[in-house]
Write a structure and sequence with these properties.
Layout lengths: L7 H7 L1 H9 L3 E2 L2 E2 L4 E2 L11 E6 L1 H18 L2 E6 H4 L10 E7 L5 H12 L4 E6 L5 H5 L2 E4 L12 H20 L5 H22 L2 H11 L4 E6 L4 H15 L2 E6 L16 E6 L5 H12 L4 E7 L10 E6 L7 H20 L17
Parallel strand pairs: 4-5, 4-6, 6-7, 7-8, 9-10, 9-11, 11-12, 12-13
Antiparallel strand pairs: 1-2, 3-8
The protein binds fructose -6-phosphate.
């Protein structure tokens, strides 16, 4: 039941602190992650992996894109990410000792499952699924599974499944990094400490709901919108755009901020809203210079910032200050205000939030 909430999507956005807590439950042991976290794995499973291929669709694909930044940084293993409907129809070159990872809420997405079946005929040494549904096809057919503990997700737009996928990928990167010796004890400790704070930080981020609801009133009448991010926040910009498209029917595109001048900047005029995902991190200065380029062309800026991010404001700028959080958690936490933005725009636009037109919760046909 929806309880006090108006829509399942809204309820599921609000369940994220608990879903994240559940995804950690029984898995952290001091600075260690218990071996049972990855079903079927032991302390040597990931020791000699030389490359990783991640395959998924939609929102789960965006989780994979974030996962690549973490996996390469924390494990030193070359990682690729691909949309399942593309992966399954090309002749991928698979190196020895490669790990194949699928990410899926349902575990039944046709293209993802077909890619796993193909991978088992290819040269992969291991297959792992990150999945929310026990007993699903992906889980049954993979060597190893890391369960996201989002709980049942009913709204068609994926919310708590996505943030628990991100947390699971971060945990997986720690597990692999520890097994192959890439991660220092200090770094591991720092990230585990951050992860412990994640559920309560998610609660803090939810408190921006009222501000976002107000912002959405100006936003919901738009026909087009751009989302910008850099580095690990680039896939979060993609996810923000997907969510806005699918439930509010506002045309939105996510771009890596540095890519703007290679074409999309031509779209910018006084009518174009631009959402900038701008947490205080190592790419801040680069991002700010992209923001100034967009501002110079008159765009309406919606800047989701935190901490010491200092960006000029003017009559065309809406600034939303979010709580401070460890840099490693920024992609997970900055997703929350973007989910709320698309939710409120959809409500204002009167769309069917939980059952957007033309969409199915589980895409079991090609
Ligand atoms: C978007 C959305 C879809 C799914 C995609 C994959 O909000 O829900 O893009 O993420 O259809 O579904 P799963 O994760 O079940 O494989």
């Amino acid at each position: 039941s929806k309880g006090k909430f108006r829509h399942f999507m809204q309820k599921e956005i609000y369940e994220q602190p608990q879903s994240l807590r559940n995804t950690l439950l029984g898995r952290l042991n001091g600075d260690d992650i218990s071996l049972e976290t990855v079903v079927g794995a032991d302390e040597n499973t990931f020791r000699n992996i030389s490359s990783i291929q991640i395959v998924a669709c939609g929102t789960s694909y965006h989780a994979g894109l974030v996962g690549r930044y973490w996996l390469e940084e924390l494990t030193g293993i070359a990682t690729n990410v691909e949309i399942a409907s593309e992966y399954r129809y090309r002749k991928a070159v698979v190196r020895d000792n490669s790990l194949f990872i699928t990410i899926s809420q349902s575990g039944e997405t046709a293209d993802t499952l077909a890619s796993l079946r193909l991978a088992k005929e290819q040269n992969y040494s291991k297959t792992l699924s990150i999945c929310n549904v026990n007993g699903s096809s992906l889980v049954r057919e993979s060597d190893f599974t890391l369960f996201t503990k989002a709980g049942a997700e009913i709204g068609v737009a994926s919310t708590k499944a996505f943030t628990t996928q991100l947390l699971s990928l971060l945990i997986l990167a720690l597990i692999i990094g520890k097994q192959n010796g890439s991660i220092s004890a200090e770094k591991n400790h720092e990230i585990i400490e951050a992860i412990r704070k994640l559920p309560s930080l998610a609660e803090e981020f939810l408190s921006c709901d009222k501000l976002i609801a107000t912002l959405s009133e100006q936003f919901s009448g738009k026909r087009h919108c751009l989302f910008l991010g850099r580095g690990v926040m680039f896939p979060i910009a993609l996810e923000g755009a997907l969510k806005l498209k699918e439930i509010s029917y506002i045309h939105a595109e996510g771009y890596a901020a540095g890519e703007l001048k290679h074409g999309p900047i031509a779209l910018i005029d006084k009518e174009m809203p631009v959402v900038v995902v701008a947490p205080d991190n190592s790419l801040m200065d680069k991002l700010i210079s992209n923001v100034e380029e967009v501002r110079a062309r008159g765009a309406q800026l919606y800047i989701f910032k935190s901490g010491n991010t200092v960006i000029k404001s003017d009559g065309q700028t809406n600034m939303l200050s979010l709580p401070d959080c460890p840099e490693i958690l920024q992609p997970i936490l900055f997703t929350i205000p973007l989910q709320l933005l698309s939710y409120h725009c959809a409500v204002i636009n009167g769309t069917d939030v939980d059952q957007p037109r033309n969409l199915a919760k589980s895409v079991t046909v090609e």
